[in-house]
Amino acid sequence: MNANQSTVACAEISAKASAIVSANTAPPVHIAHATHADVWAALADLADPEIPVISLRELGILRAVREAADGSTEVVITPTYSGCPAMGAIEDDVKALLQAHGLQGRVVTQLAPAWTTDWMTEAAREKLRAYGIAPPQCGSDAHTHSPSVIKFSRQALARDVVPCPQCGSTHTTETSPFGSTACKALYRCLDCLEPFDYFKPI
Ligand SMILES: [Zn+2]
User: Fold this and answer.
1) For residue 190, what are the CA distances in angstroms to 51, 76, 138, 164, 186?
2) Rounded CA gap, 43 and 38, in Å?
3) pTM higher than 0.70 for the full model?
4) Is 78 inside any structural domain?
5) Same domain membership, residue 156 and residue 89
6) Fewest C-beta in 10 Å: which of 4, 43, 123, 133?
7) 23: CA distance to ligand 1 center in Å?
8) Is residue 164 scored above 50 in pLDDT?
């Protein structure tokens, strides 16, 4: 496909994609040859199974929709943490949603480059806070490209000041390095006394 053909295809795709998005109450559209944009649009609002107010796209878990060597469509997902127990559920959710839209695609879990909290959008951080989970601090750490080992040991030495998502107080303390899931730590606010989850930066 040359550049011109690709431009035309993209315009068609956008029109088709917006039709799908706007017609979310209508029965699923069955498309014989789904474009990558169709798949992307279908998955746009798929929520994270652990934090239902945030989409997988906002979290940065949904990485890409691409063509595999055999011509089939692949949806690339990257777990927030290797061994994240939610990945099985996420893969099932992606497959179910593709099927509901009459789309065909394979789910591929890609571990490199490793997920970083930097991939989380600003909107996602706000939604986390509103949901009662403190968003990751020092997200820009990843820009230094320091190995995870160094980052983890640094964090062990100097704990982040984590503002309370309820009252905004920075007078908080870590009560457990692991919260409701391995990617969160359990904190407690010393002002409003509310316990809360902190989404740890990686
Ligand atoms: Zn508080």
Assistant:
1) 25, 41, 22, 9, 13
2) 9
3) no
4) yes
5) no
6) 4
7) 41
8) yes
Residue 129 Cα to ligand 1 midpoint, Å, equals 12
Average pLDDT over residues 15-28: 40
CA of 139 to the centre of ligand 1 (A): 22
**Cα 84 to ligand 1 centroid, rounded to whole Å:** 28
- Tell me, what's the pLDDT at 182? 78
Q: Pick 169 or 4 by higher pLDDT.
A: 169
Model pLDDT, residue 138: 60
Give tens-digit pLDDT for 79-93: 887 667 778 889 999
Indicate which CATH number applies to the domain containing 48.
Answer: 3.30.300.130
CA of 158 to the centre of ligand 1 (A): 21
The CB-side HSE value for 131 (13 A sphere, CA atoms) comes to 17
Ligand 1 centroid–CA 196 distance in Å is 9
